[in-house]
Amino acid sequence: MDVLDVQTLRAYCLTCRKIVDSKHTCQTYRQVLLDAVLAGIAERLDNLGLNPIMLTFYFAENQPNTYRLQITLTLAVSLSCEILGPLPAGWKYCWDSNTASSIEYNDWLCVTKDYAEARLKTVVREFEKFLDGRDAEGIMAMILLTG
After folding, report:
1. Parallel, antiparallel, or unpaired: how do β-strands 99-111 and 91-96 relate?
2. Alpha-carbon span 69 to 73, nearest angstrom
3. For 77-112, how does the pLDDT look when each residue is reduced to its tens digit (9 = 90+)?
4. 11 with 32: CB under 8 angstroms?
5. Residue 101 to residue 52: CA distance in whole angstroms
6. For position 144, what pLDDT does the model report?
7. How many Cα atoms within 13 Å fall on the side-chain side of residue 69?
8. Which residues of 70-84 are buried (b: 16+ CB within 10 A; e: fewer)?
9. What's this model's pTM, rounded to 2 decimal places?
10. Which residues in the chain belong to E strands, given as ranges?
């Protein structure tokens, strides 16, 4: 995989936990558009009741031959508070007035093409660990109380 190329978004079924095609029989609201490397984050967000819609990443060219990672996690729910608590460094809630419907990551580290894929996998793995440490029942209760 060359992570600097145009990203290929695929339908990922949150029920079956796999990439699916247009003939898949699960309901479409259980499908997320994503690049396969972000599937673990999608599963964890779903387990927390945050219903992802689309997860994308992009490497912006910062200077010739150096790139900065950006990740966007678009959610079906609008958040009215920092439901996951303070996010790890580089991650932020994207607020539009009083609600947030996405979480974004902007990397502080610039990498060369040779290290881009490894950097992506490291950031994804770290955020998965962060999500694993969240209290699913507490978050779902907060969604109900603040929704």
Report:
1. antiparallel
2. 13
3. 888 889 999 999 999 999 988 888 999 999 998 899
4. yes
5. 10
6. 86
7. 23
8. ebbbbbebebeeebb
9. 0.92
10. 10-13, 18-20, 31-34, 52-63, 66-79, 91-96, 99-111
